[in-house]
Amino acid sequence: MKVVVMGAGVIGVTTAYYLARQGAEVTVLDRQLGPGLETSYANAGELSYGMTSPWAAPGIPMKAVKWLFMKRRPLFIWPLISPTMWAWGWQMLRNCNDEAYRVNKSRMVRVSNYSRDVMPDLIAETGIEYDGRAQGTLQLFRTEKQLKGSKADQEILAEYDSPYEVLDPEGCIAVEPALAAVRDKFVGGLRLTADRTGDCRMFTVALAERCAEMGVEFQYGQSIRSIAVENNKVVGVDTEIAGRITGDAYVCALGSFGPKVLNPIGIRLPVYPVKGYSVTLPVTDDAMAPQSTIMDETHKVAVTRLGDRIRVAGTAEIAGYSGRLGPHATDTVRYVISDLFPKGGDVFRAEGWTGLRPMTPDGTPVLGPSRYANLFLNTGHGTLGWTMACGSGRAVADVVLGKKPEISLEGITAERYGV
Ligand SMILES: Cc1cc2nc3c(=O)[nH]c(=O)nc-3n(C[C@H](O)[C@H](O)[C@H](O)COP(=O)(O)OP(=O)(O)OC[C@H]3O[C@@H](n4cnc5c(N)ncnc54)[C@H](O)[C@@H]3O)c2cc1C
User: Fold this and answer.
1) Whether the CB of 12 sits within 6 Å of ligand 1
2) Which of 20, 82, 139, 378 is the most buried (most CB within 10 A)?
3) Is residue 111 assigned to a domain?
4) Residues 266 and 276 in one domain
5) CB 101 within 8 A of CB 107
6) Same domain? 162 vs 209
7) Based on the domain organization, do 373 and 249 belong to the same domain?
8) Cα–Cα distance between 243 and 219 in angstroms, integer?
9) Which family is it part of (predicted)?
């Protein structure tokens, strides 16, 4: 079977891998000149199995109002004249209740836990290096109120069998020794012991190389203009340079840009770009640097150790498809690294980056079949595309090849939006 995968981000490349591994003839198309050059490029690097939750949660609308007025705010909303943006925001608000949260969370955890379980096999099979570590995530609380507020999260973690430990300041320092230097800045933490970390872009590039060795054809610099359909089937993907590329089946893994080619063929997915920022800086003193991921609960910023680098990422900005990296855009993430690990890395050599999270209003990705018999979807991973990549890629590859995926896709397909 010949399969055309649209998109060479972490999602498209893992899908290509699982397809090729089962004997499919795969072509991957991407407008960039290599793999993992858009949202998969410099994310926070967290494999957040324990923190897999939708952003749409009870209490979030009130918190969001507070965040909008903070000095170093984690949320920006630009009042754009965009019906798509406001419709998406409204759908998200409608998911901010107990019942929707529980349903959405359980769907997301299904994909995330599957990813957690299958990723080690992929790493063992391919031997790829990605600056991976398995030392958990430490959610760091600066106030007693945050610590108390985490009780609800603990109950949910217990319900999902996600291992965790509640730590006092000394416990936090035991897992992240460099925090001893800022002992007065936090009151405790919640450590998700099964979480892992790693460089998503490094993984994507290395896996794309393995895929190429397995016979996958990568066509870079191919901007997809549209998907051609006839009689309820896709008959080709029209690109700007190579013209029409054809296959027996097609997978859309275009991240935030999926709707640009799916809307015209009637698949109106509420996937909206939520912008985020990161900086990456070299470690200057290992003893003063983070060892794994620390999530600063106040600023919603993640600080992650990736080999001899530190990645600091956060901010949710609703600003349409703008890829602008303004001069002060990374101020908040820079502040957090200077505040918590002032001697760990060289902030003056920090490289800034921005990316668009492909977010659905319910936080759950869109996997599997579409209304066209030979078109499959693997998109909408929002804040957790790196975490969910292996599970999503494997499940979607199975569906494309006519096999029953190892997890149920009930509630995870495009059907839930009626498109
Ligand atoms: C600041 C930030 C921090 C994050 N931190 C984490 C984290 O710690 N853990 C986690 O799990 N997730 C995290 N994420 C989310 C994660 O990065 C994304 O969910 C994931 O990268 C999405 O992968 P993707 O392959 O769907 O999209 P992308 O990586 O964007 O890939 C889509 C590909 O499609 C291509 N494309 C688009 N349109 C076209 C077209 N018309 N023609 C041809 N090619 C096209 C693009 O070039 C791109 O290569 C973070 C995101 C951000 C922004």
Assistant:
1) yes
2) 378
3) no
4) no
5) no
6) no
7) yes
8) 12
9) Belongs to the DadA oxidoreductase family.
Q: Is the CB of 257 under 6 A from ligand 1?
A: yes
pLDDT, mean over the chain: 96
Cβ atoms of 213 and 20 closer than 8 Å: no
Q: What is the pTM of this model?
A: 0.97
**Domain of residue 383, CATH code:** 3.50.50.60
Residues 306, 415: Cα–Cα separation, whole Å: 38
Domain-embedded: residue 71? yes
Q: Which residues contact 45 (CB under 8 A, 6 or more apart)?
A: 131, 197, 198, 199, 200, 293, 302, 304, 306, 311, 313, 386
Residue 119 domain-assigned (yes or no): no
Q: Residue 185 sits in a domain of what CATH number?
A: 3.30.9.10
Q: Which domain holds residue 17?
A: 2-41+202-270+364-417
Cα dist. 410→106, 364, 365, 367, 416 in Å?
11, 12, 12, 10, 9
Tokens matching residue 158:
């217990």
pLDDT in tens, 150-196: 998 898 889 888 899 999 999 999 999 999 999 999 999 999 999 99
User: Residue 50: which of 163, 170, 130, 148 has the closest Cα?
Assistant: 163
Q: How many structural domains comprise the chain? A: 2
| Distance of alpha carbon 337 from alpha carbon 303, whole angstroms | 7
> Is the pLDDT reported for residue 6 higher than 90?
yes
Distance 128 CA to ligand 1 centre (A): 20
Please work out whether the CB of residue 381 comes within 6 Å of at least one atom of ligand 1.
yes
β-strands 46-47, 249-252 pairing: unpaired
197, amino acid identity: T
Q: How far apart are CA 103 and CA 81, in angstroms?
A: 31
Average pLDDT value for residue range 248-256: 98
Ligand 1 atom closest to Cα of residue 10? 25
Which of 30, 251, 305 most suits a substitution to test ligand 1, by most atoms within 8 Å of the C-beta? 30
Cβ(301) – ligand 1 distance below 6 Å:
no
Tens-digit pLDDT profile for residues 329-385? 999 999 999 999 999 999 999 999 999 999 999 999 999 999 999 999 999 999 999
Residues pairing with 283 in the sheet: 345
Where is the domain boundary, 319, 337, 359? 359
Q: What is the mean pLDDT of residues 313-320?
A: 94
Ligand 1, atom nearest to 314 Cα: 1
393 CB within 6 A, ligand 1:
no
- By the 8 A CB rule, do 170 and 141 touch? no
Residue 287 has what DSSP assignment?
G
For CA atoms 18, 24, 30, 34, give the dihedral sign: positive
